[in-house]
Amino acid sequence: xSDDFELDTDDLTRRMDGAMGALKTEFSSLRTGRASxxxxxxxxxxxxxxxxxxxxxxxxxxxxxxxVTVNVWDKxxxxxxEKAIMNSGLGINPQTNGTIVMLPIPELNEERRTExxxxxxxxxxxxxxxxxNVRRDGMDQIKxxxxxxxxxxxxxxxxxxxxxxxxxxxxxxxxxxxxKQAEIMQV
Length: 187
Hints:
The protein is α+β, with helices and mostly antiparallel strands. It has 2 domains: 9-28 and 109-185, Ribosome-recycling factor (Topoisomerase I, Chain A, domain 4); 37-104, Gyrase A, domain 2 (2-Layer Sandwich), CATH 3.30.1360. It is built from 4 helices and 6 strands; from the N terminus they run H-E-E-E-E-H-E-E-H-H. It has a 4-stranded antiparallel β-sheet, with helices on one face. Strands 1-2 form a two-stranded antiparallel ribbon. A hairpin with a 2-residue loop joins strand 3 (58-64) and strand 4. Helix 3 (110-147) packs antiparallel against helix 4.
């Protein structure tokens, strides 16, 4: 076994990419004072007897930096869309004009910006933990291979490969957090 051990770094990379993807999704749901269609992704509307994502009952648009609109396709669902947005915890009061639900995005105050920056830091820490868990799995595979006869030089090589990959992804998480916090704190 010692000569033919090959750590599946593609699998580790894919799993670390998954952690980064989850982080980006969580970051996109944070309201930064600028309108974004992504901020409505978690909103579920009670439609036709089941909970449906808002983008499946209407078209979400961002006509300007301080406004999001939802053009509801079925007029009977306008009230349900309004109710879902009010109950979503976004802190936005919808205004209705026929089948169009308008969401004016208010300016964020300093206290709310600081709170959002803290939430972004928590999301980043979850991503770091996920990356470290993938690292631990890789190291466990190397340890198992060592007990099956992997040489010490090969073990050191693979451990440094996994550590380099981990360091790279942790640096990416930190960079994404820095950018998001700068975006949140920007007035």
